[in-house]
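Researcher: We're reviewing a set of sequences before deciding which ones to prioritize for further study. For each one, I'd like a predicted 3D structure that I can look through quickly. This is Phosphoribosyltransferase family protein. If possible, include the structure in token form so it fits the rest of the review sheet.
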Amino acid sequence: MLKSIINLFFPKVCYTCKQPLTDHEQYVCTDCRHHLPVTNFHKHNANFVRNLFYGRANIINGTALLRFEKKGSVQQLIHELKYRDHQDIGLFLGHWLGEELSTIDAYKAIDLVIPVPLHKKKFKRRGYNQVTKFGQQIAKALKADYNENLLIKITNTSSQVNKKRFARWNNNNELFSLVNKEKIENKHILLVDDLITTGATIEACMQVLNSANNVNISIATMAIA
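Model: Here's the predicted structure for Phosphoribosyltransferase family protein, in token form for your review sheet.
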């Protein structure tokens, strides 16, 4: 009864269509979830993500849960997550992708999940890393460790939101650093992020992670453009 009263005055709405959710729905309504553009890369062993990094970085496996389209529902979800503090979207997407990856042998070998980090100034301004809960949920599903203190960002680049694709591609001055390198040696790492556009940020992270001995790296993101 209390829950019904709260919902009456403060109804929970779908993050995409903004319509009220039913008692059995969370974060996204059934209709919107049904129409989210899933990639199914990991289900069909598609190599689209791996091919994106061909000649740039060596990855074991790579996937993205959703396809990102300008002014689409996925953009709306990521915007709500990054700029309106709706971190439960990270929980929702992480649980979804984590459950799917946990059924695939190729991802059962993951030892450690690491998120692409924010620069400390951006973290202080936003108050959270939008990838944290996403990564934590995936790590939980894979029974892997999660650590966001090993990879740090040491340059504070400007936001990518309003940049054209070519400008993002050329924004290759992002620098990262690795702390306690020995903690990732001989491990299979899953590097997680919110969105792949050109892949430049993930490539920069991988270059640093590969400085450790005998490291295998796979990639999982919320979406890909």
